[in-house]
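Morning. Coffee machine broken again, so started the prediction first thing and wrote up yesterday's gels while waiting. Chain of 244 residues, entered below exactly as on the submission form.
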Amino acid sequence: MRGYDESSYGDGMAEVYDDWYASPPDTLACVGRLASLAAGGRVLELGAGTGRLAIPLAALGLEVHALDGSAEMLDRLATKPGGDRVSPHVVDMAGTLPRGPFSLVFVAVNTFFGVVGTDAQHSTMRNVAARLAPGGCFVIEAFVPDASHEGDRVEVRDLAVDRVVLSISRTDSGTQRAMGQFVELRDGQPVRLRPWAIQWATTDQLDAMAADAGLRLETRWADWQGSEYGPDSVNHVTVYRANS
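Came back before lunch.
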């Protein structure tokens, strides 16, 4: 997408993010699982957004660092109760990460796929591995790719008396990329565009990236509750571990 960069998604979505993506029902399970994996050590969240996970983890007494390419997202995190306990970093995930070591690095809700470019994804994995403490872990939550989503789509995301939000997307399974716009049409106001772009990876591809970075696959669940992952799973939560 012409003109799109690492801050485009966050800057476009920050003002509506908490309304559009209200805390999902698995947030408590997610926080509990991550806190257990952190084992009291330092934590780094990649693509932390407005702090859905970083803030409750910090409230448990953990040292939490929140990284996002959008300063506007992190500004909103800072204004929330408990946001002052989180250390913000306005950095692209594929860029220079905060100084380690970290017991836990994690990236939730498909955000790893926001790193567009195979080389950039490999670089991100290697940068994470370099900042993990011995025996530390990197956790990725992501969707399982579905080839049926190929092509162009126009869908209604939200419809109200005074506005409509359209989701317009283009998916290319050959390059494993998708891009799109949320187009908000509100009565009497200018059109608002909120762009996004991703490059997805299969679980096998993620495992290969991790192995190349010196990480080993420890476990893979279908969700944060620890449900068994299988051929019909639509999402996965994968834990990679650094050598002790």
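The two ends are 41 Å apart (CA to CA). Going to sketch it on the whiteboard this afternoon.
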